[in-house]
Each structure stands twice: as structure tokens, then as C-alpha cells.
């Protein structure tokens, strides 16, 4: 079940070479200056990475979610900011249009998104609606053939880059049986009343583009509704299920990057007259790190294979994100300890992984949300 095909191995090798040759050399400076390299994004587009899981008829590569995960894992090994740029560009930017858009919306947006010429954000999280996405307060009302949108969003990836074309926004569009009717609406960048606020000063993922958004009477055509009115809640839950597989792949790459760096450092670091790698406590730490990488990879591979086979995968995606996110955080902590004082210096990649990895236990569903999904699959409804 978990063996890669020849084509998948070739993809992994290609992206790994790109990550080491192009992404890694610029990662320290990009992190230090909080700058997303649009040249790197363009090269990812040229390699076809943004189009991996989409059909060729829309400009994609005809691959699947397994292929996307392989690419994201290879990037996450050296630079999580670049990996999340690809993950969000596909899972949260292009995928909602592909899944729920009209043929006209697909023709208008997908070619540029799948080629990496444009990016899009997914406006879900709000100050009072994070894990509890049903608490959405942003509203949209129909007026004169237009949606009028008011509210705010936060922590939105790829929302303010030079090539960001739009954000897909969840908004309350009415009430059904006393419950909020939530819909999704495409809001192009530059729409009057739509403001992309200043970027965040983050702990990690510093080279990833992340902004709060505000809407004050922002008007877009009624035809910008994405999917059926009232289907937004159901639709974005399915998008998040898929995204959790991709985040698990990113986390696995981060965990492996920490392991490789720690092994190399332990072999070269002399302590009390011998290599650190000869000390049993260091060996046991590295062995546990290796076990975490292996387990995380098995988990996301399993979820991806289920998804690509058209089988139920929500529980397995939650397990994969839970296991892999914790593996990344634990390996980052252990790698930093192996490096000692050097692990606290930002010039070493393990320091960046240490700062970057915490968000992997929060974004696209917190650890607690994954546990809740798994518990419900066990029939433990509460």
C-alpha cells in the first residue's frame, strides 16, 4: 500500500533536487527578512507543482493528492514557508474552485492558479471563529444583483502577494431553521471595501505571506458565489479534510529535515574526545526521531491513497495530521537539543524548524480538533 510508483519516485527526486538547489540557499535570508521569493514561486509553477492534483483539461498535471503530498514533503524538509505556500495555493486556493466552481469560474481562474501565475487565499478563520468555524460572523447580503460583504478574517495565507488574484470568503448569507446559512464567495483583490491588512509578525513561517482581511461593504457580482448558497460549511469541511493530508506531508518533511540535520551534526560534533553520535543517549534520541518520521509518512500515505481511491478518509486524514504534526514538533525540539547552543542560532535550519513547527499543531485544524474527529469516528459523540 505504501510503496511509491516509479513516477512518484521520480517526482520526489525532482522536487528534492529543486528544494536543495533552489529553495534551501535562499531560506535563511527569506526568513530573516520575512520575504516570500516570487522567483521561487514562479519556478514551482514552471515545474508544474501547483497543478499536480488537477486534470490536464484545466491545465493541471493529471496527478493526484499523493503526488501533491510528495512534493510538499520534499519542500517541507528544507523550508516550511515555501511548502505552505504550495499547500495553501493548491488546497485552499485552487481546489475550492475546482471542486465547487461553475464552468465559467473554472475557465476564468484555474489556468493561472494551476500554472503558478496567480495565487488565491481561503478566508475562513475569524477572531471569534477558529476551530468553531460555525461561529462565522462575516455576513453577505444580496443587494441589486451584488453580494455586499462585511466582516473580517485572520491568518489568511497567500492573501497579499503580488500575484494574489482573489480570496474565497465564508460568510453568513441567511438563516435556515434557526441555524446560520454559510456560503462561500469569491472576492477579487482590489475590490473596493476589501482591505488586505499589514502582514503579521509571526513566530515562524516568516517567508509565508499571511494577512488579516477586512470587508466594509465590499461588493462583488452575485455570480461570484462559489458552490450553492448555504453549502459553504459542508464544502469547506471537505476542503479541510484534504488539506490535513497535505499538512501531514509537510510535517513529515519537516520531521525528516530535523532528523537528517541532527544525524549529520551528531556525527561531526566531538564531545569528551569522541563523536556525539557514539553516545547512547544521542543514539536513542535519533532513533526516536527516525521512528516518528516513519510513522508520520505511513499515516499520510495511507490517507492520501484512500482519498485518491475515492474511499472515506476523514478519520485517517485527522490521524495523519495529528501524528505528523506532533512528529515535526518533537523532532524539532530534539534536533535543537542535539545541536546544543548552535540549535538556538537562526543560521542553523533546526532553529527555523523549531519556530516553524508549532503551527503544524494548530493550522488547518488544531490537535484538539483532530482528536475530536477521531473520537467521533469511534462513536464517542458528545
Tell me what the structure shows.
The protein is of the alpha+beta class and 382 residues long. 51% of the residues lie in helices and 17% in strands. It has helices at residues 6-33, 38-46, 65-76, 80-100, 103-115, 232-268, 280-308, 314-339, 349-357, 367-377; strands at residues 119-123, 139-143, 146-157, 164-176, 179-188, 194-196, 210-221, 225-226, 270-271, 274-275. The strands form 3 sheets. It has a 4-stranded mixed β-sheet. A hairpin with a 2-residue loop joins strand 4 (164-176) and strand 5 (179-188). Helix 4 (80-100) runs antiparallel to helix 6, helix 6 (232-268) runs antiparallel to helix 7 and helix 6 (232-268) runs antiparallel to helix 9. The chain is globular. The protein starts with 5 loop residues before the first helix and ends in a 5-residue tail after the last helix. The model has no long low-confidence stretch (mean pLDDT 95).
Give a short summary of the structure.
This protein has ten helices and ten strands.
pLDDT under 50 segments (min length 5)? none
Going by helix content, strand content and strand pairing, the class is alpha+beta
The sequence of SSEs as H and E is HHHHHEEEEEEEEHEEHHHH
* Relative strand content: 15-25%
**Rough outline:** globular
What's the total number of strands? 10
Q: In whole angstroms, how far apart are the ends? A: 34 Å
Q: Estimate the helix proportion, in percent.
A: 40-55%
- On the 0 to 100 scale, the average pLDDT is 95
What can be said about the biggest beta sheet?
4 strands, mixed
Biggest sheet strand order reads 1-4-5-8
Using only CA atoms, what is the Rg? 21 Å
Number of helices: 10
Amino acid at each position: 500500500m505504501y510503496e511509491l510508483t516509479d513516477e512518484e519516485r521520480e517526482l520526489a527526486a525532482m522536487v528534492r533536487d529543486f528544494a536543495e538547489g533552489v529553495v534551501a540557499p535562499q531560506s535563511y535570508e527569506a526568513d530573516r527578512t520575512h520575504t516570500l521569493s516570487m522567483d521561487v514561486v514562479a519556478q514551482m509553477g514552471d515545474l508544474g507543482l501547483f497543478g499536480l492534483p488537477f486534470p490536464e483539461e484545466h491545465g493541471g498535471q493529471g496527478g493526484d493528492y499523493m503526488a501533491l503530498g510528495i512534493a510538499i514533503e520534499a519542500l517541507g524538509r528544507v523550508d516550511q514557508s515555501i511548502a505552505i505556500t504550495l499547500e495553501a495555493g493548491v488546497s485552499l486556493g485552487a481546489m475550492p474552485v475546482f471542486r465547487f466552481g461553475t464552468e465559467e469560474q473554472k475557465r476564468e481562474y484555474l489556468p493561472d492558479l494551476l500554472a503558478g501565475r496567480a495565487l488565491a487565499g481561503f478566508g475562513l478563520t475569524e477572531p471569534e471563529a477558529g476551530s468553531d468555524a460555525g461561529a462565522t460572523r462575516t455576513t453577505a447580503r444580496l443587494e441589486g444583483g451584488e453580494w455586499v460583504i462585511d466582516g473580517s478574517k485572520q491568518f489568511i495565507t497567500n492573501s497579499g502577494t503580488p500575484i494574489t488574484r482573489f480570496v474565497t470568503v465564508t460568510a453568513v448569507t441567511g438563516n435556515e431553521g434557526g441555524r446560520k446559512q454559510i456560503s462561500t464567495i469569491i472576492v477579487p483583490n482590489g475590490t473596493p471595501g476589501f482591505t488586505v491588512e499589514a502582514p503579521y509578525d509571526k513566530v515562524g513561517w516568516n517567508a509565508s505571506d499571511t494577512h488579516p482581511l477586512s470587508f466594509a461593504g465590499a461588493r462583488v457580482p452575485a455570480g461570484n458565489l462559489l458552490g450553492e448558497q448555504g453549502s459553504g460549511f459542508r464544502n469547506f469541511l471537505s476542503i479541510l479534510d484534504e488539506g490535513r493530508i497535505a499538512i501531514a506531508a509537510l510535517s513529515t518533511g519537516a520531521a525528516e529535515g530535523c532528523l537528517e540535520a541532527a544525524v549529520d551534526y551528531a556525527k561531526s560534533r566531538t564531545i569528551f574526545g569522541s563523536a556525539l553520535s557514539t553516545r547512547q543517549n544521542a543514539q536513542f534520541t535519533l532513533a526516536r526521531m527516525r521512528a516518528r518520521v516513519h510513522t508520520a509518512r505511513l499515516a499520510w500515505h495511507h490517507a492520501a491513497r484512500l482519498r485518491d481511491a475515492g474511499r472515506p478518509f476523514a478519520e485517517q486524514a485527522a490521524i495523519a495530521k495529528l501524528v505528523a504534526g506532533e512528529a515535526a514538533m518533537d523532532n524539532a525540539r530534539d534536533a535543537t537539543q542535539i545541536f546544543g547552543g548552535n540549535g538556538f542560532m537562526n543560521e542553523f535550519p533546526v532553529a527555523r524548524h523549531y519556530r516553524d513547527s508549532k503551527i503544524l499543531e494548530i493550522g488547518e485544524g488544531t490537535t484538539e480538533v483532530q482528536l475530536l474527529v477521531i473520537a467521533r469516528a469511534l462513536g464517542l459523540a458528545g
